[in-house]
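Handout, tutorial session.
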Amino acid sequence: MTVFIRVQRVGRGQIVSAPLSLEGVPATAGELICACVDACVHEQRVRVEAGYRPLTPEELAGCAKIGKIAFNFDYNGKKADLDSAKDTAMQAYRDGLFRVFLNGVELTDEDTPVHLSEGDELTFIRLVMLAGRLW
């Protein structure tokens, strides 16, 4: 199943939707977050295995359009641990570090049932804590 994902930080202007292929159909918000983590970890592992490759002119033009040239190259060379990534994502969701919206409706709890269909739009908003001096 393909959904469109939008990742944004509060205060950022431009939002771009990108397709994300999910395995199966998640029934709850927690399963949806884990399915997104699965897809992202899979993409990271493919990038690590592929190694460095030069950007095509189309990719370079797309990067220039958004104002950041990135090679999608993992300089660390380590593959992400899927279980650890899922645990981290679920803990961050429970701690309120990001919010998830499905077609503009917030998923408030990890047990919230979701009715996902092809082409739905997911929005992840990372909440940035305002930090000051700790003393």
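The second record follows below. Compare its token runs with those of the first.
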Amino acid sequence: MAVVVDDREQAAALGDALAARWQPVYVARLDVGDVEVGPGVRVERKTVADFSASLSDGRLFDQAARLCRGPWRPLLVVEGADSIPAAAIPERPLRGVLVSLLVAFRLPLLRTLSVDETAEFLAAIARQESRRRHRRAASGATPRPARRVALDVLGAIPGIGDVRARRLLRRFGSVPAVLGAPPGALTEVEGVGPSSAASIRAAADPPAPTEAPAPRRPPPRGPDAPPVP
């Protein structure tokens, strides 16, 4: 079970930390994500500061969409000892971001404290993937076909489901083609109305959340003020 670390992660020493815990580890350029664990898992790694910056400049949801379109199981790792709100993201929009990643994208999010802890988790994933591959080979089972993976990806979009996903794939041929289709073409597919087309477009290019106003604080209370219920 080979693990590939994107060469842009070299400054963080992730490749060296992972190689001390698992072999083989290769360094190469990945088109999507930062770490590839065999053919089955693709990982996007961000420090807390990276997470904040990618949210501010609009990259976060684009990266999440690309990560979730592939035939692998995606994972987002947010690394660092600071809490995410400490990265200057107000609590309310942050909560909306996390809900979107976990529910709309079905993208698991893992918090780690350091590069070493990230490497420990990635090595554990590699061990599990290796055992899974050996069990599959021993049982004669075959991996899920690419079409089933594509149906799962499209079916996860709110309002689409398996039936509409099949029709969309029959019409457009692939997940990228569906996600890149204009709303007018999407609504030509049976059962896909304007709201479903809007969900598909949102999954392909979701808007960055706007910053919510800071919560109002109650005025200072004097010593004779009644207790707050």
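Points raised in discussion: Strands lie at 3-6, 25-28, 35-37, 41-47, 73-79, 109-112.
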